[in-house]
Amino acid sequence: MTDFVLPYEHRDLSIDQQVALRTAAGNLGREFTGLYGPETIERFLHSSYDQFASISCVPNFLPLLAERFARQRLQALARVEGHHRDGKPVVLFLCTHNAGRSQMALGFFAHFAGDQAVAWSGGSEPGHEINAAAIAAMAERGIDITGEYPKPWTDEVVRAADVVVTMGCGDACPVFPGTRYENWELDDPAGLDVDAVRPIRDDLERRVRTLIDQLGIPAAKG
């Protein structure tokens, strides 16, 4: 496989970060062999890194976050370009900070739909971390969202979605013809304690269950 070379603007990174990014590029290269070459993978990986570098306060995790986000974006691009046809519906949950509402919705959707559908999330102004009260409220339902992270949305991710659910991002939410859109009016859990987040969580659970029914997805879990 062709060696991945860090672009010039990333040469001020530490040696550990450079090694981590090269490892990430190699992982993605093997995963998308036959679909995308080194140049495309580098472009997605490093643009993903740049997006997180502007908002993250934990630089040691940036290469890992960049790899995860680049993988999602490349998977989305493959769907947009018709390289991936598994027939699974794709749902994208969008809110402002991608730290509360959209993450809880994603957690419920993944829990109930299992591997019968694909769910992603994003934010117009991604925060630094998932809302602690949202994490605690979801844990009460037996759903762990601590493995998620706030992230922006990109054109290929939105274009790959069959359904885009917006929650409070207003005019910032992208609109593409041919995509089904739903706007869920819900309070923002930012700054609220667990007691105040529970009604938002319960409302989201009802809405997600309804959406899964509408999409004809047999619930993987009750």
Secondary structure layout plus pairing:
Layout: H1 15-31, H2 38-53, H3 62-80, E1 90-95, H4 101-113, E2 118-123, H5 132-139, H6 155-160, E3 163-167, E4 180-183, H7 194-214
Parallel strand pairs: 1-2, 1-3, 3-4
Helix pairs in contact: 1-2, 1-3, 2-3, 4-7, 5-7
Tell me what you see in this structure.
With 222 residues, the protein is α/β, with parallel strands linked by helices. The chain is built from seven helices and four strands. It has two domains: 8-80, Helicase, Ruva Protein, domain 3 (Orthogonal Bundle); 90-214, 3-Layer(aba) Sandwich (Rossmann fold). The chain has helices at residues 15-31, 38-53, 62-80, 101-113, 132-139, 155-160, 194-214, and strands at 90-95, 118-123, 163-167, 180-183. A four-stranded parallel sheet has the order 2-1-3-4. Helix 4 (101-113) links the parallel strand 1 and strand 2 (118-123). The termini are far apart. The model has no long low-confidence stretch (mean pLDDT 89).
